[in-house]
Amino acid sequence: MATRTPLIAGNWKLNLDHLEAVHQVQKLDFTLKDAKHDYSAVEVAVLAPFTDLRSIQTVVDADKMGVKYGAQDVSQHVSGAYTGEISPVFLAKLGVTFVAVGHSERRQYHGETDEIVAAKTKAALDHDLTPIVCVGEGLDIRKAGEHVAYTLAQVDGALAGLSAEEAAKIVIAYEPVWAIGTGEVATPADAQEVIGAIRGRLAELYDQSVADVVRVLYGGSVKSSSIVELMAEKDIDGGLVGGASLDPEEFARIASFY
Ligand code: PEP
Questions:
Q1: Within a 13 Å sphere around the CA of 71, how many CA atoms are in the beta-carbon half?
Q2: What one GO molecular function would you report for this record (predicted)?
Q3: In whole angstroms, what is the distance from residue 1 CA to residue 12 CA?
Q4: Is residue 103 annotated as a catalytic residue, yes or no?
Q5: What atom in ligand 1 is closest to the CA of residue 173?
Q6: ipTM over 0.90
Q7: What is the CATH number of domain 7-255?
Q8: Which of 254, 185, 192, 258 has the alpha carbon at shortest distance from 45?
């Protein structure tokens, strides 16, 4: 079976301007190096506002940091009359590795449908960016016991039209909406239930070799106090970390969970 390198990705959301971003990645890199972080054992990434990316690229390149960086969204279009959008081509030119697609806040506040999420996922892959496809149910769906079916339907929607080769390159983040920014972490068993089902769906849609290589993260109020137990679950390959990623020392502790 393939071994999957864990990924700890910090979603800064709408925080940190380009000057603060430079300070943040320097402090993160320093703290990780101090903790003798092994970048070959665990990948670390920050997903920053678009306006930070050029500054982050400069400092990461200059200081030869192992930290990777990404964006929080991408246009499904490459160019044209799409005011305010950011092309995957522009992101690729800035050395971006990851891009979050279909975060629940994009779905909620920007009306992103499964079709849009699928188009953005494809656009990212077409330009050698790794999409982190975000899925997860709201509280009413969880209470109704429909969380697995709901989340798998989002996975089906996001992956519609992708070949097995393309699907093998994506990352999926299971983020129950009721756990995002609320301080309420899903139990490791709750997260494993859905993430195991996502891996099962990948095997059904493609084959076991795809299911074995795709990294599936958990996101929702992850902290250094919860990451170890989450990572002990067999299908959880890392964390998508919001609030706690704004504190470089806490984020470095999360990334050094192993
Ligand atoms: C997120 O923004 O994807 C997230 C999981 O946020 P938080 O860790 O703050 O819940």
A1: 28
A2: triose-phosphate isomerase activity
A3: 33
A4: yes
A5: 3
A6: yes
A7: 3.20.20.70
A8: 254
Name the DSSP class of 194: H
Strand ranges inside 175-253, DSSP E: 215-219, 238-241
45-71 residue pLDDT tens: 999 999 999 999 999 999 899 999 999
Q: Is 29 in the pocket of ligand 1 (CB under 6 A)?
A: no
Distance CA 173, CA 102 (A): 10
Is 221 annotated as ligand-binding? Answer: yes
Q: Where are the domains of the chain?
A: 7-255
Q: Do 242 and 250 contact (CB within 8 A), yes or no?
A: no
178 is annotated as contributing to ligand binding: no
Kindly state if the Cβ of 241 falls inside 6 Å of ligand 1.
Answer: yes
Q: With bands split at pLDDT 50, 70 and 90, how would you rate the model's confidence at 254?
A: very high
Pocket test for ligand 1, best of 223, 241, 246, 251 (most atoms within 8 A of CB): 241
117 lines ligand 1 (CB under 6 A): no
220 lines ligand 1 (CB under 6 A): yes
- HSE of 85, CA atoms in CB hemisphere, 13 A: 16
Contact between 215 and 235 (Cβ < 8 Å): no
What is the distance in angstroms between the CA of the first residue and the CA of the last residue of the chain?
A: 20
Task: Decide: pTM greater than 0.90.
Answer: yes
Given 105, 112, 137, 175, the catalytic residue: 175
Q: If you search the block for the tokens 């170890």, which residue do you land on?
A: 228
What is the structure's pLDDT at 56? 98
